[in-house]
Amino acid sequence: LCALAIALGFSFAVLIFGSGNLKEIITCVIGTLSFAVLLKVPKDLLFYATFGGLISRVNFNFLESTGKNVFIASLFAMAAVAVYSEIIARIRKTPATVILLPSTIPLLPGSTIYYAMQNAVNGNTQNFNYYAAQTAETATGLGLGAVIVAVLVKFVSSQIEYYKHSQCLVSSEKHSQKRAAKAGSSPPAYK
Q1: Taking Cα atoms as reference points, which of 75, 70, 34 lies closest to residue 26?
Q2: Once rounded to an integer, what is the mean pLDDT over residues 117-135?
Q3: Which of 14, 100, 138, 191 shows its CA 20 to 30 Å from the CA of 30?
Q4: Which of the four pLDDT bands, split at 50, 70 and 90, describes residue 163?
Q5: How far does CA 186 lie from the centroid of its chain?
Q6: How far apart are the C-alpha atoms of 102 and 33, rounded to whole Å?
Q7: Residues with Cβ < 8 Å from 50, sequence gap 6 or more?
């Protein structure tokens, strides 16, 4: 069933992006797997980390192909992979960063950093400014996407905990009232 889902997703990516981006997506998946092994991701989580790399790159390519700039593409691709990492972390009972860190490898602006530095060394100011701006936009999108998801997850988790705690207090108060009614005394007041 998993193999079928992967095959269908892979075919869908080929249909959307064509075979030119297919090589890029395959190399991103291989690179993600390699970095996951290098980062010592547990063997039972390697698939999830590698699939996260596929999610990040496919989202980025899709957004770029629709005409979105690098910042928006990076922001939403990072947000997608951060949500994926949080979901897998809850399911597999592992820290989200174990999945998130290798999954972001395909989004890192390695080539633009290289070209920015190459143009800086060669004295080509115009190209340096262009590539440095691309690098900064990508890095800002990645950071902001991760932070937005982390803040939302923290907020939702705190609201769930608050709700559980308040339900526990209500349940405890009702139980105290029932015991007090049976004993014939008034229940203790909760503050």
Answers
A1: 34
A2: 94
A3: 138
A4: confident
A5: 52
A6: 8
A7: 29, 32, 33, 36, 102
Percent of the chain with pLDDT over 70: 76
Q: Which of 117, 103, 113 is nearest to 139 (CA)?
A: 113
Q: Are 27 and 77 in contact (CB under 8 A)?
A: no
Which three-class secondary structure string do you get for 72-114?
HHHHHHHHHHHHHHHHHHHHHCCCHHHHHHHHCHHHCCHHHHH
pLDDT over threshold 80, residue 103 = yes
SS3 per residue for 123-177: CCHHHHHHHHHHHHHHHHHHHHHHHHHHHHHHHHHHHHHHHHHHHHHHHHHHHHH
Q: 24 with 57: CB under 8 angstroms?
A: yes
Tell the residue number behind the tokens 């770029």, with chain if given. Answer: 64
For 31-83, how does the pLDDT look when each residue is reduced to its tens digit (9 = 90+)? 888 889 888 999 999 999 999 999 999 889 888 888 889 999 999 999 999 99
- Residue for token pair 């980062």: 39
Residue 17 and residue 5 in contact, taking contact as beta carbons nearer than 8 Å: no
Residues near 181 by Cβ (< 8 Å), separated by ≥ 6? none
Residue corresponding to tokens 């709700």: 163
Whether the CB-CB separation of 101 and 39 falls below 8 Å is answered with yes
CA–CA separation, 97 vs 86, rounded Å? 9
Model confidence, pTM: 0.75
CB contact at 8 A, 32 and 106: yes
